[in-house]
Known about the structure:
- By secondary structure, the chain is of the alpha+beta class.
- The chain contains two helices and three strands, in the order αβββα.
- A hairpin with a 5-residue loop joins β1 and β2 (40-45).
- The longest helix has 32 residues, at 64-95.
Amino acid sequence: MVESMDELIAQVQGQLYRLQDLQEATTGIRVEETSSDGAVTVVVDGAGALVGLDFSGAIRGLSPAEFEQVLVQTAHAALYRAYAERGALVTSFNGSGT
Length: 98
């Protein structure tokens, strides 16, 4: 329980700073994933947006269907890792005080 206005203000400011820290941490997430054959590299941010895409010469050996599969699988792996990182940050935020 809060006993004074100063305590309430300090508590609210602390929560605001924690929320700002969480926002900065999630904004800073960048996950890079490269396919096992090295043909495709995908970079996503903490919101799952594609922020980088690179192809090596190994894509020449892929059929269009194989290329599509490698691209989608690599993007999915990057998204999974980015969302896991974001989830860990949110879990930590939720468990670190009221």
